[in-house]
Amino acid sequence: MATTHSTRAHTGGAKQAWAGGLTAFAGVMLLLAGLLGVFRGIMAIAQDAVFVTTPNYVFKFDLTTWGWIHLVLGALAVLVSFGLFQPSMWARVAGVGVAGLVIIANFLSLPYYPVWSVVMIALSGFIIWALCVVQGDESVQSPPGPATGGAPRASA
Predict the structure, then answer these.
(1) Dist. CA 14–CA 6, nearest whole Å
(2) Rg (CA), the chain
(3) Is residue 115 within 8 Å of residue 52, measured between CB atoms?
(4) 54-105 pLDDT per residue, tens
(5) Selection from 1, 2, 13 nearest residue 148 by Cα
(6) Which of 60, 66, 64, 28 is nearest to 47 (CA)?
(7) Own/partner pairs for 47-53, CB < 8 Å, 24+ apart?
(8) Which of 72, 81, 93, 102 is the right S-S partner for 30, CB 3.0 to 4.6 Å?
(9) Alpha helices for 47-56 (secondary structure H)
(10) Model pTM?
């Protein structure tokens, strides 16, 4: 006699796998964006000649100041990305916030390193999308267990 499983149980498991995959994607991308931000900050602090200077720019700061801004945001992004590898709501919220700050910082420093700023803005946009597309606590729920007949376990 063949056992049939409801499609609802399979759909829930696939949905959880999708949510977990997006959270892991966001964690890896935020880690990479953070490391690249740290390196960009170190470049701007150590060697100002790497960047193009633009006269009469409204958001003009000293390049060393931009370096410290990118360094701090990069370090913060790396720390938050480790929280995303253990799915938690605080890490998702903090990840969206840090990625938003990275977008703003790269937009404001656009004239100094234009192509790289656009790449970082796009990457941060994907991070925000991946963290926001997971609804509620889907990434935190435990997978269905065999002892409960395929029904999801109650989370504590």
Answers:
(1) 13
(2) 20
(3) no
(4) 666 666 667 788 889 999 999 999 999 999 888 788 999 999 999 999 999 9
(5) 13
(6) 64
(7) 51/112, 51/113, 52/111, 52/112, 52/113, 53/112
(8) 81
(9) none
(10) 0.70
98, 38 contact by CB (below 8 A): no
Q: Which two tokens mark 120?
A: 């970082």
Dist CA 80 CA 135 (whole Å): 19
Sign of the alpha-carbon torsion through 99, 77, 98, 128: positive
Instruction: Name the residue type at position 99.
Output: A
Taking the CB of residue 106, how many other CB atoms lie within 10 A of it? 26
DSSP H helices in the chain: 7-46, 63-84, 89-108, 114-132
